[in-house]
Design brief:
Elements: H1 10-15, H2 21-27, H3 33-43, E1 51-55, H4 61-68, E2 72-77, H5 80-89, E3 95-97, E4 110-116, H6 124-134, E5 135-148, H7 153-166, H8 171-174, H9 177-184, E6 192-204, H10 205-213, H11 216-219, H12 223-240, E7 245-258
Parallel strand pairs: 1-2, 1-4, 2-3, 4-5
Antiparallel strand pairs: 5-7, 6-7
């Protein structure tokens, strides 16, 4: 384990994405159409024509898909670098600065409040009341995470190497639906429904390494140590994928809660 005795704070990790926004936008995985089918099923209404606020929008990966689905989307993003990348990628989609703990949105103004890979950066004691404030009656708080398919040996082995090297607990990948609901709303005020959507993509080794290197644990770590890890990881991957095309497999963990 190569971490320091004083690990970076959650705020430091959250802000780390701003300096790597272009890397994030270019290499992070997207989401499959089946995810949005599941969102509509659990919400009991289509995204088409719905007013959606995508919070922690980052570079706009999820926002673009919601927009393509026919939703009227406004993005909410706190980070300078991520917001700048978002504007380059989606110049016609409105974006406002803010975060889930203090949403810059009017009361009862949206049908869907979406968090793609972002809810865990909020304080649920603040973000849950904010969600209830801005959602219309019958609106849907919709949270999801791309998690690694740990039933696949090479993915499980890589996850363990990352855990050991960076001294982290890969909670998001290991959570079950019940644990995820408890983390989403420790107060228990919301009643979440769950879905899991499995999907995969094929990418060059360089893209895969840039993808994992865009995660906060890598971004806040000592660069020399991170570079050494990624070099060793390339050798591991070449033994599994001699053609240097990696099949990344994900399980999207989706939780949806409807407002009264």
């Amino acid at each position: 384990m190569t971490t320091s005795p004083n690990p970076p704070s959650p705020t430091t990790r959250a802000h780390s994405f701003n300096a790597a926004a272009a890397q994030y936008a270019e290499n992070r995985p997207s989401y499959p159409p089946a995810l949005f089918d599941a969102i509509e099923e659990l919400a009991g209404r289509p995204l088409t024509g719905a007013r959606v606020a995508d919070v922690g929008a980052g570079t706009g990966i999820a926002t673009a898909l919601l927009h393509a689905r026919g939703a009227e989307v406004v993005a909410v993003e706190p980070g300078d670098g991520m917001a700048a990348q978002f504007r380059r990628t989606l110049p016609d989609v409105p974006i406002v600065r803010g975060n889930g703990n203090a949403l810059p949105l009017a009361d009862h103004s949206v049908d869907f409040l979406t968090y793609a890979q972002a809810w865990h950066w909020t304080d649920p004691t603040r973000s849950v009341p904010e969600a209830l404030r801005v959602l219309r009656p019958g609106g849907a708080l919709t949270l999801w995470w791309n998690t690694h398919a740990l039933d696949i040996p090479w993915i499980s082995e890589q996850s363990e190497r990352i855990r050991i090297h960076f001294g982290i607990n890969r909670v998001v990948e290991q959570n079950g639906s019940g644990v995820r609901s408890a983390l989403a709303d420790p107060t228990g005020r919301l009643d979440f429904a769950h879905r899991k959507v499995r999907w995969s993509r094929h990418v060059p080794i360089d893209t895969h390494l840039a993808n994992i290197g865009s995660h906060s644990a890598f971004l806040v770590h000592d660069k020399a140590s991170t570079d050494a890890f990624l070099t060793e990881e390339r050798d591991h991957l070449r033994t599994v994928f001699p053609d240097e095309v990696v099949e990344e497999t994900y399980v999207v963990e989706l939780v949806v809660a409807l407002t009264p």
